Amino acid sequence: MTIVARWWCQGDNSLINCTLCPQMCNLRDGDSGNCGARYAKAGKLWTRAIGVGTSPVADPIEKKPLYHFLPGTKVLSFGMVGCNLSCAFCQNWNLSNNHNHAILQPITPEECVQMALEQGCSGIAFTYNEPIISSEFCIEVSKVAHQAELKTIAVSNGYIMDEARTDLFSVISATNIDLKGINPAFYSKICGARLEPVLETLSFLVHSTTTWVEITNLLIPGLNDSVADIEGLTDWVCRNLGLDVPIHFSAFHPAFRMNSVSRTPTDTLVMAKKIAHARGLRYVYLGNVSIPQSTICHKCESEIILRNNYFVNHCNILDNACSICKTRVAGLFE
Predict the structure, then answer these.
(1) Beta strands in 111-206 (DSSP E)
(2) Quick check: 30 and 40 in contact, CB under 8 A?
């Protein structure tokens, strides 16, 4: 199934300009964009990323990762193929660097919602590949999901233009944005993208929407894991987003075009957590390591959520506040 895409305009010399993301692909008739989902035909931009997806799976919301949004619940997760970035370290390259939509199965928004309800899920997560490139379908699914009182989640790189950003995230309940680093050169050389649009997305989400935001930073040995990198990233979050945005420092494992790079040492993750806490961030977590991740009340320092292997073992939050000292805990817990 294909439909006319939502964000594009006519360019010069019969070109079609895709305005979904900052790649701003200029396409001649028959050309596909960098993401593989959008293509020019008969003077219009079309999208293949509609009405199809991977087999939906119900899994813990903590896997997204989201630790401050309905913890202990399940979400129905599915994705597509393709991405608008070209990260050499992609941890899910088999889908993100695949443009073969024929491997996906047909699925309607109504079917997504019905599956989520049948499996006792609190919401639907767009994940595995980059949901921005299937924004039209994400919006359709989200509207049906909200009618059924389900939340919607986008696990995203945040690389999106202003108009599409507003349209997509107006129907997204929560998101985890992958902030890959704070060095513009890292984005351009390793990810085939620019840093600034991602920072703009994060600022927009935190200050101009009701979408709950968490951040993941994948630490890659020798590339974005120096003390200066981590200090720079956490300082930017503190100054521009505030102290309540949770951040997840995640371990890299060799993959895609970086099979020769070693896995992130646990000591590096622990160092990043200490730096972030020293900068004032209240909620800092480690990912892809077998260390229980607790949420600590920033006032009384009580352990208010205890997690192990993506599962919540104990939650001591009542009315979105620490049940011991009554201090508000940022997020949505009920």
Answers:
(1) 123-126, 151-156, 174-178
(2) yes
Closest listed residue to residue 52, CA positions, set 115, 125, 138: 138
CB count within 10 Å of CB 146 equals 15
| pLDDT tens-digit map of 293-330 | 999 999 999 999 999 889 999 999 999 999 999 999 99
Q: What is the token pair recorded at 218?
A: 């994948």
Only one residue has tokens 């894991």, namely 225
**Going by DSSP bridges, is the β-strand pair 123-126/74-78 parallel, antiparallel, or unpaired?**
parallel
The H-assigned helical ranges of 209-312 are 227-240, 266-279
The pLDDT assigned to 1 comes to 82
Contact (CB, 8 A) for 181 and 187 = yes
SS3 80: coil
Distance CA 17, CA 24 (A): 6
Tell the burial category of 284 from Cβ atoms under 10 Å away from its Cβ (0-12, 13-18, 19+).
buried
Alpha-carbon span 152 to 169, nearest angstrom:
10
Mean pLDDT (the chain, rounded): 97
Question: What tokens were used for 76?
Answer: 């129905």
Residue 238, burial from CB neighbour count under 10 angstroms (0-12, 13-18, 19+): middle
Element (DSSP H or E) covering residue 296: strand 294-296
Q: Report the percentage of the chain scoring pLDDT > 70.
A: 100
Which of 159, 187, 163, 190 has its CA nearest to residue 175? 159
266 has pLDDT over 90: yes
Question: For 103-132, what is the mean pLDDT?
Answer: 98
Measured distance CA(109)–CA(96) in Å, rounded:
22
- Are the C-beta atoms of residues 82 and 102 closer than 8 Å to each other? no
User: Is residue 334's pLDDT more than 90?
Assistant: no
- What is the value of pTM for the model shown? 0.97
